[in-house]
Amino acid sequence: MRLFRCDACDNTVHFDNAACVVCHRHLGWRPDAFAMTALEPSGEAFHFPTLGRDFAYCANAAHDACNWLLPIERAGELCPACRHNRTIPALDVPENLAAFRRITRDERHLFYSLLRWRLAAPTRLEDPVSGLAFDFLADEIAADGTVVPVLTGHAEGVITIAVKEADDAERERRRTDLGEPYRTLLGHFRHEIGHFWWDRLVRDGGRLEAFRAVFGDERLDYGTALARHYDQGPPPDWAQRFVSAYASSHPWEDFAETWAHHMHMVDTLETAGAFGLALAPHGSVRGELALELDFDPYAVADFRPLAAAWPPLTVALNAINRSLGQRDVYPFVSTPTIEAKLAFVHGLIPFG
């Protein structure tokens, strides 16, 4: 994620800011320009003096749930991220509103990456059969009073996100119960969108044989494979071949996990570059932990610079977290087999 500047006072601002803390002007993110814009109220609109144009906020700004801007002629509409939301929880329930704000925050981070890569996803209205739609669902109460939990997942373009995943305490409980080293709301978005893009870029993109050569045969019965995974666990050598234990359950999940980790890698490297982060640690053998980010991670078609930069950054981030008494921020390792899978995902991105 890039850093931005308030174009009224030059203060550093961030992607999620809706107001500048220095000059107090309204801020909005323009997805057409990848820029934060300082605005002045102008009747029902917001004026950008430099361009001499008026803008409107995404309709979800009324819920304090989005800071993206639209041309004034599209006032009242949803932004390129929020327009994919098919089902949202009842926002008159305070805990649902708080969860919705956290969900849309991470959804916008997801779409930042997709827009950077020019991966245009049609909505369900534009493509009723396989367009992208999000259902943000709360658990239901059955007639006998038992809770019917929502399962996060993907099916033919529809991504379901359990609203409970926006609750930090509940998500941490699930992470612990499932023995996972990492579980985040943004990670769910990135994993499930991997399934969506597998359908479009691999299955429908003529890449099935190439996929099978790297990830295995997805025609393996999915239900049987998942049942085996939950019953027997991952194979003993999973860490040498899969980016996570869950990735070992089935080639579809292997791809989705790899896609998510590729997004983690690219976006985190961009953030590190935006802060001017460079590593030259004392005592490192042959400088293998050195890092200098002199490329745009979202624009480089060659995967090798990403593969070289990622391990030093994660080692540094993990060491910093340990110094604060926290878990490793990235509790995973990379191997040549895993890097080959990440390189396959990278090769699906339409650079140029």
Average pLDDT, rounded to a whole number, is 92
The count of helical stretches stands at 9
User: What amount of the residues lies in strands?
Assistant: 15-25%
Rg from alpha-carbon coordinates: 21 Å
Q: In percent, how helical is the residue content?
A: 25-40%
What's the number of structural domains? 3
Q: Given the C-alpha coordinates, what overall shape results?
A: globular
Q: How many strands in all? A: 15
Ends distance: 20 Å
Structural class: alpha+beta
Strand and helix order: EEEEEEEEHEEEEEHHHHHHEEHH
Neighbour order of strands in the largest sheet: 3-4-5-6-7
Biggest sheet: strands, sense, closure?
A: 5 strands, antiparallel
Low-confidence stretches: none
Give the helices and strands, then pairings.
Elements lengths: L3 E2 L6 E2 L12 E5 L4 E8 L2 E4 L4 E5 L11 E3 L13 E3 L6 H23 L16 E5 L2 E2 L5 E2 L4 E3 L2 E5 L5 H10 L7 H19 L4 H8 L6 H11 L5 H4 L9 H24 L3 E2 L11 E2 L11 H20 L12 H12 L5
Parallel strand pairs: 8-9, 9-13
Antiparallel strand pairs: 1-2, 3-4, 4-5, 5-6, 6-7, 10-11, 12-13, 14-15
Helix pairs in contact: 1-3, 3-7, 7-8, 7-9
Could you walk me through the main structural features you see in this protein, from its secondary elements to its overall organization?
The chain has 352 residues and is α+β, with helices and mostly antiparallel strands. The protein has three domains: 4-79, no CATH class; 81-190, no CATH class; 207-352, no CATH class. 37% of the residues lie in helices and 15% in strands. The protein contains nine helices and 15 strands. The strands form five sheets. The chain has a five-stranded antiparallel beta sheet with strand order 3-4-5-6-7, with no helix packed on it. A hairpin with a 4-residue loop joins strand 3 and strand 4 (35-42). Helix 1 (94-116) crosses helix 3, helix 3 (185-203) crosses helix 7 and helix 7 (251-274) packs across helix 8. The radius of gyration is 21 Å and the shape is globular.
